[in-house]
């Protein structure tokens, strides 16, 4: 009796250890793609970064589980016709304030990305800027970037972002390589460039950088009240394109900006600011969650930097900051390892998209066409793709997901030569496939309903079943 009790106790302890080990592994998987996890830490004043208020805000951000601070420093041009790039008193953070905050953050064990921006006094969007005098402008730009490369080196920053969303200038690849070479001669850390989300695949100088970067304001859904499934699907369409692009250059990826306001239009216009939409805290939280699901366990993703966390000042009721909102609560849980996402979460989205393709859902391809073109940036008359082109492009995107997601267990089995009927083993495997399909359908419904308990349970069942199927398949192919 005593021995039996000891055996039972030992078995319970063993199960608990295994459960703990698996839980830790899942948490590691969930956080593996967030080496640089944090926010764009923003201020538009001369001395804000050096203030006690900024340090207090940084410590509050630290409590979310963030480990990286992207410090934004903005210099200005008068208009798109000028070449001069200058600091503005009262608007551009001083060198002293930057060094003070970077030194404080490094002393607390954090990573720092220094990210200079160029804005325009006449409100020209930096992405629309094309220099009138190319050589003159790049001379000015190199001078500015060299200054921040030296600040980054002196203060111990980890990464310098050599440009942000300047898509009208990326055609001048040789000039950009000179910018990068000059920065590298002054700063021994890593370099990246933050490409506009409509332009990342047009940048030709990724080979000169350590990280590829995207300011990822992709629209995810044009529905008025999008479900979680619709938001994840929207991200997976973009993931497919990004997977193929990343494979072409091989650089690790930083989502140098990704973010959503707590507004009712955040899914369709994540880049928007300055207007007066309706407040929607729940949608912001769902968008954060969809982003986490779509980017879980992506080996080439080095991290993501959310927009934004303010160093100083009071946040508006409708704003990008998730601080003291549902999205912030979710992010803290995710970064602390209390919420895990696996590749199976993305697979559920893949299966929905695949079914849409196979059913030739023309309405779906109309939506996809809008995604590809970047709705809000081009009118229908300017589109170069018709629906057939969109369908073809989407098929290519799905092929990329075929490689990104493990679909080996659902591939059809080869029949034995001369076999007139399925073997018992094949029938058993077919039964397991049917079970897997049913579980995945339930998982998709659970995601749509946001039922975390059901999602966790189904992910475990799917994982166990897939392991069984792999083992069965291995036995039959020996």
Automatic annotation (TrEMBL):
It comes from the Bacteria. Pfam families: GH113. Gene3D superfamilies: Glycosidases. The keyword Signal applies. InterPro entries: GH, GH113. Residues 422-449 form a coiled coil. Residues 1-32 form the signal peptide. The keyword Aminoacyl-tRNA synthetase does not apply. CDD domains: GH113_mannanase-like (cd19608). Keywords: Coiled coil, Signal. This is GTA TIM-barrel-like domain-containing protein.
